[in-house]
């Protein structure tokens, strides 16, 4: 079954045009790869399954440890994990690929990213690595305590990573995720932003596993009320967890030349896109965002003795033009979450629990003409 993305359904979110693939890979040099693990059915047997999990890797560039990128995180609610952030906060630089997986597989994914970096460096070279790995909890559908993600899964995701269209929905790290009471997972979107004589790209990728049905909104329409649990059941929430317990990791990429403080400002705005879909950063939710910029491509690696520079020239977008990047980040985040849900298919996992797909046709029907028409003049929608 071919799943339609939001724009293919006539759902146009915001005022800016998307990039060629409407994906984070519209930012030149960014690649995405997945490994998906699905096996077994029936009752949960720890260590055996059913398995509904995987890993997604976002590669900001081929060797970020040699060519770091300005970067910064933002925490909306901290009941989650994104490793490596202390060094990013300290240095303002991203020096690793980004792994996304389930909560109890963060360690193995982190170790695998270190092993991959070691394989790419000179034999015997001394180095340290603090990889960035994010998680959301797939323990409703997946045998999460069975630790089914392996190092080879991470390396396979790296090997498969590429630019162009990004597979969405129940794939990679998003395989077993649930969003607003529907099936969730991986989603992506992008926006093109004119700034003076230049045009910049914002790309967003989410691993969406958050939210309640009652709060779910699309383009301002309360879809969660219109498609309530009496129409499409929500998955059983295991005790003692409350509805809305979950998490989302949001990765924002841009080719605009931003310094770390500006990256932090964009990462913060991703939370506004999440809020537009009804996400609230509940007490039991881990909502952590990371922004990186590819706009400066000659930053010193920091510990390399081969680089004799004492200074480095950098470019910085003036803050006069940053509002448009804020708006674009909000739009792309909202659309990425919706794309994750539209791409995800109904899945039955451990103990027979089912997370139903968001019915695209019903959503389109309820929206009617909302957001179905757009035009652009100098990068903005026509009034």
Rg from Cα: 20 Å
CATH class: Alpha Beta
Q: What's the CATH topology name? A: L-amino peptidase D-ALA esterase/amidase
Terminal Cα span: 37 Å
Largest sheet: 6 strands, mixed
**Strands across the major sheet, in which order?**
4-3-12-11-10-9
Oligomer classification = single chain
Tell me about this structure.
This protein is of the alpha+beta class. Helix content is 22%, strand content 24%. The chain has seven helices and 16 strands. The strands form five sheets. Strands 4-3-12-11-10-9 form a six-stranded mixed beta sheet, with helices on both faces. Strands 1-2-5-6 form a four-stranded mixed beta sheet, with helices on one face. α2 packs across α3 (151-160) and α5 (260-276) crosses α6. Mean pLDDT is 93; it is low at 372-383.
Keywords:
383 residues, alpha+beta, 4-stranded mixed β-sheet, 6-stranded mixed β-sheet, single chain, L-amino peptidase D-ALA esterase/amidase, 16 strands, globular
In brief:
The protein is of the alpha+beta class and 383 residues long.
């Amino acid at each position: 079954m071919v799943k339609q993305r939001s724009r293919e359904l006539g759902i146009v979110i915001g005022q800016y045009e998307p990039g060629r693939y409407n994906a984070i890979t519209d930012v030149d040099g960014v690649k995405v790869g997945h490994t998906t693990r699905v096996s077994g059915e029936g009752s949960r047997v720890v260590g055996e399954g059913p398995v509904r999990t995987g890993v997604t890797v976002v590669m900001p560039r081929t060797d970020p440890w040699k060519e770091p990128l300005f970067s910064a995180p933002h925490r909306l609610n901290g009941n989650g994990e994104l490793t490596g952030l202390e060094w990013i906060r300290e240095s303002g630089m991203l020096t690793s690929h980004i792994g996304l997986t389930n909560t109890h597989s963060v360690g193995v994914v982190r170790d695998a990213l270190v092993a991959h970096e070691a394989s790419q460096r000179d034999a015997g070279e001394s180095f340290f690595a603090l990889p960035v790995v994010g998680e959301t909890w797939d323990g409703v559908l997946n045998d999460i305590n069975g630790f089914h993600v392996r190092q080879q899964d991470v390396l396979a995701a790296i090997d498969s990573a590429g630019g162009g269209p990004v597979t969405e929905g129940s794939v990679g790290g998003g395989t077993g995720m649930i969003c607003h009471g529907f099936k969730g997972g991986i989603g992506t979107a992008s926006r093109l932003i004119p700034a003076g004589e230049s045009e910049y790209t914002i790309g967003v990728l989410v691993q969406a596993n958050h939210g309640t049905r009652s709060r779910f909104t699309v383009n301002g329409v309360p879809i969660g009320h219109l498609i309530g649990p009496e129409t499409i059941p929500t998955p059983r929430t295991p005790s003692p967890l409350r509805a809305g317990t979950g998490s989302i990791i949001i990765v924002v990429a841009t080719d605009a030349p931003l310094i770390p403080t500006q990256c932090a400002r964009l990462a913060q705005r991703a939370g506004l896109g999440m809020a537009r879909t009804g996400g609230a950063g509940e007490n039991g939710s881990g909502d952590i965002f990371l922004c990186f910029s590819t706009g400066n491509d000659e930053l010193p690696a920091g510990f390399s003795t081969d680089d004799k520079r004492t200074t480095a020239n950098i470019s910085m977008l003036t803050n006069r033009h940053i509002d448009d990047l804020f708006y674009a980040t909000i739009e792309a985040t909202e659309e990425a979450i919706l794309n994750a849900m539209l791409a995800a298919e109904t899945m039955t996992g451990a103990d027979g629990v089912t997370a139903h797909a968001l019915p695209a046709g019903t959503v389109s029907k309820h929206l009617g003409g909302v957001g179905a028409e757009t035009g652009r003049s100098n990068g903005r929608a026509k009034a």
